[in-house]
Each structure stands twice: as structure tokens, then as C-alpha cells.
Write a structure and sequence with these properties.
Membrane topology: Multi-pass membrane protein
Catalytic activity: ATP + protein L-histidine = ADP + protein N-phospho-L-histidine
Shape: elongated
EC number: 2.7.13.3
Main location: membrane
Helix content: 40-55%
Structural class: alpha/beta
Radius of gyration: 40 Å
Protein name: histidine kinase
């Protein structure tokens, strides 16, 4: 049985109709006779969605007990046993209740797909992992329930469920999304028009990128070489000269004029080394392109216009931006130039923009090497000069008598010209042909291949020797220059490789993509195996044709050690390219090892942290928890004893000791449970607008009377907090302050408004804390100074900071003027002119 197919309904926000669309699709499939069941769907008390569940078979959910409450989750085993053709699974990014089969619901879906069951699911754009920071900057809410982008990208079909912000707000106002008591807060905060418009744009752009991937894959699979102008994609041709910055900015402005425009800056280095660019200037242009939202590419090509056009057609570009030539007027005798050639050969579907700049006609500015590998045109010219030239010269010299010496110098000039143009063999042919013509036409006896005067024999021999020597020197210089240029091109590529590592581009996918681009291959893959007899596995791959499972199946393979190889598909590379390719392969292997070491280090760090916490817990249990237990045990034993007749005062004192020990136990256990919730990420605050004077006084119940002074002005704005978490936070801060304050000196709890924040300050006059220890006191199981063992397990401040950050606030320690410590709790204000606080979106609210 093959793998099932995944279909996802993607929306910009809750309430756009994803679940409704999914259920409608289920009814259509059932009408066609498809076996379709509801594995898990939440209707959130929305009548129209609940009606759509009628007539659909629903798999019973699995009940789980968690902290005294009963929750329901999808029963994966029941769905697998039922084995339907299609299963509906709502809320793909949902986090399962602890004790479930998998941590995340998308992992449950992966099991269903692996079993051959097709799955239809829903997800909101804000739950994509890569967009977490962007969504938080827009809405002010950090999404804790996320799904990896790759899970959604692998879906066989993604359908966007779209709705305008105005229509969505009308649905909200009519009570079709949330209950009436939540409508006003939602419309004023998360569902503001600006937020919804930004989220909608994110969803549209993400789906557009996905469609673009489908299009490129289709074009590669069907070998479509013509350009489809589905979106503006602008290629900037760079030479490494200073005009590149102007071209990149111009291309960025062109891209801004069209929706979804994309800029791709490309530098093409010739393998024959005819041009050389400054690595520093290229680094600046790369940074500029990336800052403007574009990408930078470096490829190798002998024919720069052809390589540029191949790259543009390969990425389905619609426009090419080039700079006006820096060559002077007389340099055009050597050819029309790159810009004119690209414009002539671009075709009707690819527009070419020639942009003027300050460097026009000021010279190339780049060193030109004239003795590089000889091209076909120069070789043909060399043969023409070497063969046709002597014949034409002989005809001309027959009309005038210049003497044998001058005739030999003229023929030698043609031989040198043939060597300069065509290299060794045209020069040798010119020397041989010229010597025959000299002997036949100009040495007595004339018109015969014999020489009467021995001096003429010496002259012709010298002529041939000089011609051969000049031709050899010129050819050797050309080959040496080509080798130097080749090495320069290789060093340039290696410098880019080293620069990518220094810039932090250490991902395996980035390294493989750089290999594929540099050598113009279709795909690149890093294969590995554990032994000589084990099959090869793919550690990473890029490109469309990544189905290579063995190095021998690839066009090019480079071994890396005994059990790893870099495999490339597309064309066979010359042996000279393997030196650079070996460096890429070694770098890819190092990157893979580094990634695995980082993963192992993270796991080791997590284990070490867990061991530290367990050790601290054992220490706490061994002493801090046993001390109140021992006091309770002793008091209860004394009260039950028949040997002593206790007075009412003694009995009351023993009962008070029992109550005090129980309170200490309750406080210690509460802090331990709170710290456990914070470290497992299960603290989900219910944010609402409250007044501080409603909560702060309730937090003072656990401290002695007259030990705290309150200063909470009634004019303070409301704060967006969870009332229960705020009460626990203030209670821990006050208890810690009272513990270290001198007797008879009350702790001050004051509040004030600062911009769009409200600060609560807990001020004591105790010994204070040095600056270097102010952050350390918030770590779990930390006691400052020589606090006695009975003072607690050191969790109060850690829990307080954790709760504060969970509510979107901050907690820091400052020195109290005149001595002591001040805890500053900063909370988000509601209704302040600088910007209202945002009410958190319920994380499981999904349509």
C-alpha cells in the first residue's frame, strides 16, 4: 500500500471557513462513494459548522486525564483500525495533551499517511513555524502551537480559504466565530483590520511561493525552456565592478512595481579567467542584494552572454538588467559586447534593460589577460594568417624587388602573427610554407626547390628556427596563462566557499545548492552509509533530479572518506573541476558532522539540565520538604499522646505548628509544580483586562499583617494579564521581600504607569544583591547568600519571572536607593495612548 495523500485548507485567521470547507469536501466525496470519516473535528460551538458534521461517520475520541481534568484527543489506533480511504483531521498544528501517542497532531497525521490513508486537514498561516517572529511582530502574540513548514510544503494539495478582513469582522460581530462575551475584545485586539490584512497578505504570498515551486517543478519535469511570465523575476548581471550597486537598486525598484517581484543578482566568472572581480566589491553587492530582499548567485561559464541567458531561462526570469558597457569606443572592434549580445539573443519573452551609470566608457576597470586559452575564432584566424598570408605576400613581393633579407623578415612577421593568433601549429605551418615560398621564388635558381648559394641555406634555416622558437614561446605563454587563469577562477570559487562559512551559511542545503549552481548541475546529493555492505542513504539533496541512490548512478561522484560521497547529476565534469569539487564535498561533510554534533550537544544539554533539576529536587525533598513534615509529625504525635495532659495554650501552639508546617509544604509543592509547568511549556495564560487593585491585595494573604504597605493609585490604566498568574507572581515577590526585610520595616508595593506599560515595584530594605548576582537569583533552585536551608527550595523568583514572561511582561531586579532590593514587574497596559495591549488568541481556535 502506498503513502496517503495530504490535502490542507490554509487560512489567514480563525473564522475564515477552513473547517466548513473541509466538511463540505467530505460530503462531496461521500456522495461520490468515497469511504470518508471524521477522525477529529472541532466545531467550537459554531452552529453552521456543527450542522455540517451531520451525516458523517465520526471516530470516537480518546479520553485523557490531565491534572484532574478530562480531555479528548484523536484516537490514532481507532482510525488505523477503521482504515478509511479519507480521514478528516482538524487543527494540524495542535499540541496533544501529555500522555498522548505523539506530541503534535501533525505527527498523528504522518502515521495515517504512512498507513495509506488520505488526510484532509486545516491550518492557519500564523501556525507555520518559520512565520512565528513575523506574526508576533504583527499581532503581539507569540504562537506556541506551530507546525514545521516542511510538513505543509509536502502536502499534495494546498487550498487557500480566503476572506476579506471586513467580511471576517462582520462574521465576528454576528457571533459566528466566538461567543458574545469575547467578541468586543477580539475585534479590538487580534481581529483588528490591520492585523487581518497583514495575515491575509502572509497567506497569499506563502501560497504564491508554493505555486511558484509547483510551476518550476513542472517546467523542469517537462523540459520547458521558454519563459512563462507568471511573475516578475528580474536577473541582474554583475561584472564585479562598482556599477553593480546601481544595477541592484534599479532592479529592486523594478521589482517593487509588480506584485511578488523577485530580484536575482548573478555574477558569472569565466573559467578562462578573462575577467577578475574584487572579492570585497562582490561581498558588498551580495549584502546589498540580500538587504533589498533579493538573492545572490555565482556561476561559472566560458561564454558570459550564453551563461547569463541560460541562468535567466532556468529561473524563469522575465527581465534582465545590465549596465552600459565600460569599454571605450575603440574596444568595440573586438566585438559587440555582452549587453548587445544578450539583447540580440534574449528572444521575445525576455526583456533586457541597459542601465546607464557613472562608469560608462571609462574603461573596463578589470585586468584583461590576453594570453589565455585560445578560442576557436583565434585559431581559425591563426591558420588563415599562417597559410593564406604567405601566399598573398608572395604575390605582392613578385611585383617589387626588396631583397632576400627583407623578404625573409616579412615572412617571419607573418609567422609571428600566426603564433600570436593561433598558437604553435599555425605558426609551424606558416614557417614551413613560408620557407618553401622563399626557396621557390627568391633564392637562385628561381622557381626551383634547390638552393645554389650556401649563404641562402643558412638564412632559410635561421628563418625556420626563429619562427619555430617564437611559435613555441607564444604557445607556452598561452598555456601558462590559461593555467594561471584557471587557478585564479578556482581560488575565487574557494574564497566564496570560505566566505559563506564565515557569513554563517553552514546549512547542508545551502552548501549543496552552491555546488549545483557553481558547476551548472541539475541536482546534488550527499550520500552516506555505515559500512561497505550497507545501502546508501541520502543525507541531503537539492534540485529536481534527486533520485540518485548510489554514487555510481550519478554523472559525477566524489568520495568523502570511506562511507560518504557527493553525487551530481546533469553533465560530466572535466577532471580539472574535481579539485574544487573535492573542496565542496569535504565542506559538505564537515557541515553535516557539525549539524549532528549540534543536535547531540542540544540533547546532552537537555539531559544535563534534567539531571540538575532532578538532583535539586532530591536535595529539596531530602531536607526542605522533610523539615515541615517532621514538625507536623512531632506535633500530631504529641497531641495524640495519652501520657501528657496538654493545656489549651499548648494544644493551640501545637495546632499552629501543624498549620504552619502544612502551609510551608503547600507553598513548596506549589512552587515545584509551577516550575514543572514552566519548564514543560504548559502554562497557557488566559489574558484579560483587569485592575491591579483587584489582584494585588489578594496576593498579600500569606504574609504577616503590617509587613506590607500598598500604593496602588486608582487612576492607573488596566493591565492585560492572567489574574491567577499575576496573583502568584506578586505573592512570591512579596514573600521573598518580607523574608529578607529587617523586622519592623514594611515592604512597599507600589504601581505606576510608564508609557504603554504599568510597573509594579516591590521594595525592601534588606541586604540587597550584587549586580553580578541579579540575574542568577531568578534561576531555579538558587538561594542568595547564606539563606538557611529551611528558607525554601529557591523557586519563588524563578516561578515569578516565568509567570511574568508567560503574560508578556518582564521581571527584573534593581537596587533600592539607600539599600535593599527592588523587584520591578512590568506589565502591558490596556487603553494607553501608546498602543493598547493585545488579547491573546485562543491557540486552539481554528475553523
Amino acid at each position: 500500500m502506498g503513502r496517503g495523500k495530504l490535502r490542507i485548507y490554509l487560512g489567514a485567521a480563525p473564522g475564515v471557513g477552513k473547517t466548513y470547507a473541509m466538511l463540505s469536501e467530505a460530503h462531496r466525496r461521500i456522495e461520490r462513494g468515497t469511504d470518508c470519516v471524521v477522525a477529529f473535528v472541532e466545531h467550537h460551538d459554531r452552529p453552521r459548522t456543527e450542522v455540517m458534521l451531520h451525516g458523517l461517520e465520526q471516530i470516537p475520541r480518546k479520553e485523557l486525564n490531565h491534572r484532574g481534568a478530562v480531555f479528548t484527543e484523536m484516537d490514532v489506533d481507532a482510525v488505523l483500525d477503521r482504515a478509511p480511504a479519507v480521514a478528516l483531521v482538524d487543527e494540524l498544528a495542535h499540541t496533544n495533551i501529555p500522555g498522548s501517542r505523539n506530541t503534535k497532531r501533525w505527527q498523528d497525521v504522518e502515521e495515517l499517511l504512512a498507513a495509506g490513508i488520505d488526510v484532509v486537514s486545516t491550518v492557519n498561516i500564523q501556525h507555520l513555524e518559520s512565520l512565528g517572529d513575523v506574526v508576533e511582530s504583527i499581532t503581539g502574540v507569540r504562537q506556541r502551537e506551530t507546525v514545521p513548514d516542511e510538513v505543509v510544503r509536502r502536502a499534495d494539495q494546498i487550498e487557500l480559504v480566503d476572506m476579506s478582513p471586513q467580511a471576517l469582522r462582520r462574521r465576528m460581530a454576528h457571533g459566528n466565530i466566538y461567543k458574545s462575551d469575547k467578541v468586543d475584545a477580539a475585534l479590538s485586539n487580534y481581529f483588528r483590520p490591520g492585523n487581518l490584512t497583514a495575515l491575509r497578505e502572509l497567506a497569499l504570498l506563502w501560497v504564491a511561493d508554493r505555486v511558484d515551486e509547483y510551476l518550476n517543478e513542472y517546467r523542469r519535469r517537462h523540459r520547458v525552456s521558454t519563459i512563462w511570465g507568471s511573475r516578475e523575476r528580474i536577473v541582474v548581471g554583475l561584472t564585479g565592478g562598482p556599477e553593480g550597486r546601481t544595477l541592484i537598486r534599479r532592479a529592486a525598484r523594478l521589482a517593487e512595481k509588480g506584485a511578488g517581484g523577485e530580484v536575482l543578482a548573478v555574477y558569472i566568472s569565466r573559467s578562462d579567467g578573462l575577467t577578475s572581480a574584487s572579492p570585497k566589491e562582490l561581498a558588498v553587492q551580495r549584502t546589498l542584494a540580500e538587504d533589498l530582499g533579493g538573492t545572490f548567485h555565482h556561476v561559472v561559464g566560458d561564454d558570459i552572454p550564453a551563461a547569463l541567458l541560460d541562468f535567466a531561462r532556468g529561473v524563469n526570469a522575465t527581465q534582465i538588467v545590465l549596465g552600459s558597457s565600460r569599454r571605450k569606443a575603440w574596444q568595440y572592434v573586438f566585438g559587440p559586447g555582452v549587453g548587445a549580445t544578450v539583447a540580440r539573443e534574449s528572444g521575445p519573452d525576455l526583456d533586457v534593460h541597459i542601465v546607464t551609470h557613472e562608469e560608462v566608457a571609462k574603461g573596463r576597470g578589470l585586468p584583461v589577460t590576453r594570453g589565455a586559452r585560445l578560442g576557436r575564432t583565434r585559431i581559425i584566424a591563426g591558420w588563415l594568417v599562417g597559410i593564406v598570408g604567405p601566399a598573398v605576400l608572395a604575390v605582392l613581393l613578385n611585383t617589387v624587388d626588396l631583397g632576400l633579407a627583407n623578404d625573409m623578415l616579412l615572412f617571419l612577421t607573418l609567422t609571428v602573427a600566426a603564433a600570436l593568433l593561433g598558437g604553435l601549429f599555425p605558426a609551424l605551418a606558416s614557417a614551413a610554407f613560408g620557407s618553401l615560398l622563399l626557396n621557390y621564388f627568391y633564392t637562385p635558381p628561381l622557381h626551383r626547390l634547390t638552393i645554389a648559394d650556401p649563404k641562402n641555406i643558412v638564412a632559410i634555416v635561421i628563418f625556420v628556427g626563429v619562427a619555430v622558437s617564437v611559435a613555441s614561446v607564444v604557445d607556452l605563454a598561452a598555456r601558462r596563462t590559461h593555467q594561471a587563469a584557471r587557478l585564479r577562477a578556482e581560488s575565487e570559487i574557494l574564497s566564496f566557499l570560505a566566505g559563506s562559512v564565515l557569513r554563517g551559511e553552514t546549512g547542508l542545503q545551502e552548501i549543496l545548492e552552491r555546488v549545483r549552481e557553481t558547476f551548472g548541475m541539475e541536482s546534488a546529493a550527499l550520500l552516506e552509509r555505515t559500512s561497505e555492505v550497507d545501502p546508501w542513504t541520502c543525507a541531503g539533496s537539492v534540485g529536481p533530479g534527486t533520485a540518485v541512490v548510489r554514487p555510481e548512478d550519478a554523472d559525477v561522484d566524489v568520495p568523502v572518506g570511506d562511507h560518504m560521497a557527493l553525487a551530481l547529476s546533469g553533465r560530466v565534469l572535466p577532471a580539472s573541476d574535481r579539485r574544487v569539487l573535492a573542496a565542496f564535498a569535504a565542506q559538505a561533510a564537515v557541515v553535516l558532522d557539525r549539524q549532528r554534533l549540534q543536535q547531540e550537544a542540544e540533547q546532552a544539554r537537555a539531559l544535563a539540565e534534567g539531571n540538575r533539576i532532578r538532583t535539586a529536587l532530591l536535595a529539596a525533598v531530602s531536607h526542605d520538604l522533610r523539615t515541615p513534615l517532621a514538625g507536623i509529625k512531632a506535633s500530631v504525635t504529641s497531641l495524640r499522646s495519652d501520657d501528657v495532659e496538654w493545656s489549651e495554650e499548648d494544644r493551640a501552639e501545637l495546632l499552629a505548628a501543624i498549620e504552619e508546617g502544612a502551609d510551608r509544604l503547600d507553598h513548596l509543592v506549589g512552587n515545584l509544580l509551577d516550575m514543572s509547568r514552566l519548564q514543560t511549556g504548559t502554562v497557557t495564560p488566559l489574558i484579560r483586562s483587569i485592575d491591579l487593585d483587584e489582584v494585588v491585595p489578594m496576593a498579600l494573604g500569606g504574609v504577616p499583617e503590617d509587613s506590607v504597605e500598598l500604593d496602588i493609585p486608582e487612576s492607573l490604566p488596566m493591565v492585560a494579564v492572567d489574574a491567577g498568574l499575576l496573583e502568584r507572581t506578586v505573592a512570591n515577590l512579596v514573600e521573598n521581600a518580607v523574608k529578607y526585610s529587617p523586622l519592623g520595616t514594611p515592604v512597599l508595593v507600589a504601581a505606576s504607569a510608564l508609557a504603554d506599560r504599568v510597573e509594579v515595584r516591590v521594595v525592601d530594605r534588606g541586604p540587597g544583591v550584587p549586580d553580578e548576582a541579579k540575574d542568577r537569583i531568578f534561576a531555579p533552585f538558587q538561594r542568595y547568600g547564606d539563606a538557611p536551608r529551611g528558607a525554601g527550595v529557591g523557586l519563588g523568583l524563578a516561578v515569578a519571572r516565568g509567570f511574568a514572561e508567560a503574560m508578556g511582561g518582564t521581571l527584573n531586579a534593581e537596587d533600592t536607593p539607600g539599600g535593599g532590593l527592588t523587584m520591578v514587574l512590568s506589565l502591558r497596559g490596556v487603553g494607553s495612548p501608546q498602543g493598547p495591549a493585545r488579547v491573546a488568541e485562543p491557540e486552539r481556535q481554528t475553523t
